[in-house]
Amino acid sequence: MDGRNVTTSTISRRPLGRAELRRIDAWWRAANYLSVGQIYLMDNPLLREPLRPEHVKPRLLGHWGTTPGLNFMYAHLNRAIAARDLDMMYVMGPGHGGPGPVAAGWLEGTYSEVYPDIGRDLRGMHRLFQQFSFPGGIPSHVAPETPGSIHEGGELGYSLSHAYGAAFDNPGLVVAAVVGDGEAETGPLAASWHSNKFVDPRRDGAVLPILHLNGYKIANPTLLARIPADELTSLMRGYGHAPYMVEGSEPEEMHQSFAATLDHCLDEIGDIQHEARTARRQPVARRPWPMIVLRSPKGWTGPATVDGQQVEGSWRSHQVPFARAREDDSHRAVLEEWMRSYRPEELFTAEGAPVPEIADLHPAGDRRMSATPHANGGLLLRDLQMPDFREYAVEVETPGTGAVEATRVLGGFLRDVMAANMDRFRLFSPDENNSNRLQDVLDVTGRTWNAETLPGDDHLAVDGRVMEILSEHTCEGWLEGYLLTGRHGLFSCYEAFIHLVDSMFNQHAKWLKVSNDIVWRRPIASLNYLLTSHVWRQDHNGFSHQDPGFVDHVVNKKSDVVRVYFPPDANTLLSVTDHCLRSRQYVNVIVAGKQPALQYLTMDEAIVHCTKGIGIWEWASTHPDAEPDVVLGCAGEVPTMEALAAVDLLRGFFPDLAVRFVNVVDLMRLQDEREHPHGISDAAFDALFTKDKPVIFAYHGYPTLIHRLTYRRHNHHNLHVRGYKEEGTTTTPFDMTVLNQIDRFNLAMDVIDRVPRLQAVGGPVREALRDKLVEHRSYIRAQGEDLPEVQDWQWRPGPGPRTETSDPAQNAPEG
């Protein structure tokens, strides 16, 4: 805004009568009053006496600048919901304007319903003010504690992708998505404007983006507020929207203009959906979806100046417009004048309740945006209709044989999950669904696409359910919005590039952690990641595609939220995925290979092994009835194969050596049961890994994580972990393991070096193993492929039963 009071608008009608205008403006003033009170006051909520220092909070926290605009839009959306009987959600990109939706929830009565101690009266208002951004209270952002929210908004960039995720498969829902102009500068937000090309107006709901331009971030101007209007309009049209502008600061004119524009946009949405849902020929041509660009002053209705400096319409109003109201009499006088400018005596009764014309100015029941069940998705969640994963089993006659693409097998299972749940399950992937071997899903659905199609395009369909866009952020945001509103999904991604959504995962995990303690929040379906194209088979793409560290990042989160699985073959992958798709309120990370690989367990064995999460493979152990000389542990597809190959070498060189083989599917079983719900007791851990024998552990990722999970164990000083150590290039698959010293030859040498009785006699064998590494290096540099004995290696069955030993003192995990 440049200070002008002139209101301009693309739509020029004046739809509000005097009484309706007066009521909407009163509601807006009430919401603004309550918002300022939350930021500043801890007592004297209705200013029944002059403000004194002790009435003001000692620490002032919050964001005022965006809040009056959020309240303004909320008031008008309420009018539209009531007039049209709409099912609507409100997603606030600038969720740091937390006082606004909290005030709206209190005015609508929802806040008092979910928090009975904060009633719509003077005592409740006092509690409402005091709790905000206060020890023992609520955060300043739109957190899980805020009814009606699925979007925290502290980290910017995800409002549109969350909104579209909520709209998919929700044909009656309209999602009003406020995009802050600071947020609009982020890469994730810029990509998510394209979400409108993935909407099917026949079976999806609609998103109404509202780009709120108030001109400033914390201290800088915002780009979209400073480019010419025609440039901004062209940008939005290029994204596939029909933009409608509303600009000004004079309240009455702004109310009329915004009401007219909102009505026009909702009419257009209705027309688009009606045309698509009644057309005889499908699909109909894609039309631009409407959006609103609202320009209003930052800190609108706040103090014009403080201490001689501009506040309203400037960056100074972004957070707390002035911070010394407790100790500075002049600042406190400005605060009191500001709050009284809303005329609270007209807005609230003597008992502190909203006056009737405000208290009733909202939709009824679930139509209230603060009470919509879509923002408490567990209320709407329906179980998936699941096929029996056992029917997709790979036959395994001899362990450690075959050549099966595990994720391709999973694709057949997911195809039938999709077919049985065409209204509540989707796959999300950044252009990698086929690369990740899940293309069987395309037998029952297409790739979602509502832009131009050309002959030769592969499985593009307006009503497709495989969501692919080359933006990990957008995929993640869509899936989060989809889950938070009561549906199910799975996100498959190259392992190295899932790091792009590290921060988004953070926010979702924190949301789950907090909502676990909010009784009125119902559990939602878990966020499921399938990470494939993993580090050990990125030999062709090279170093840039090699990074298994997302798991380290995930494990930092609270143990009641995160789960990590390393199924070593197709049958274990099927069992783990079935479990994860049925689970609630977790983030599940599954790491699995997509290249042809050996298979180890029959389906029955896989179910037992995955239920336990960790176990001894007796068929892979030598002298299983004897006390082991060494334990070989492993987690991950390639580490499992290399550890088995090391056992094969060792039993040939040292027939009397007792090797115990332990495989880990559920990574968190390694942790102490006091630290993680899936952890096992010290007694169970010792029964697997012993108290005093050397343990060589081959791990899929960075070795330090295994040490971190096991550092309290009795035998940790004997634990030696091999894993990825940032070595790799364009090379052969086996050379990747050699470069990181997780290969069979290095593992076998580790055993020789750490088993005391082998140290004296193992020298010649060690030299033979080193010679094989030299031979390997020479061969791949001459031939461009791995040694035949490596490429063709399979497990040679030895004596002993083909069953797993039960893990002592442990039960199957519940989660």
TrEMBL record:
Cofactor: thiamine diphosphate
PANTHER family: PHOSPHOKETOLASE-RELATED
Family matches, as NCBIfam families: PRK05261.1-2 (NF003617), PRK05261.1-4 (NF003619), PRK05261.1-6 (NF003621)
SUPFAM superfamilies (alphabetical): Thiamin diphosphate-binding fold (THDP-binding) (SSF52518)
Keyword Lyase: yes
Entry keyword annotation includes Lyase: yes
Domain (Xylulose 5-phosphate/Fructose 6-phosphate phosphoketolase C-terminal) ranges: 594-795
Alphabetically ordered keywords of this record: Lyase, Thiamine pyrophosphate
Species this protein is from: Nocardioides malaquae
Region (Disordered): 788-815
Entry similarity comment: Belongs to the XFP family.
Any Pfam family matching the protein: XFP_C
Domain (Xylulose 5-phosphate/Fructose 6-phosphate phosphoketolase N-terminal): residue spans on this chain: 19-379
The protein's Enzyme Commission number: 4.1.2.-
Matches recorded under InterPro entries: Phosphoketolase, THDP-binding, Transketo_C/PFOR_II, Xul5P/Fru6P_PKetolase, Xul5P/Fru6P_PKetolase_C, Xul5P/Fru6P_PKetolase_CS, Xul5P/Fru6P_PKetolase_N, Xul5P/Fru6P_PKetolase_ThDP_BS
Identification of the protein by name: Probable phosphoketolase
Domain of life: Bacteria
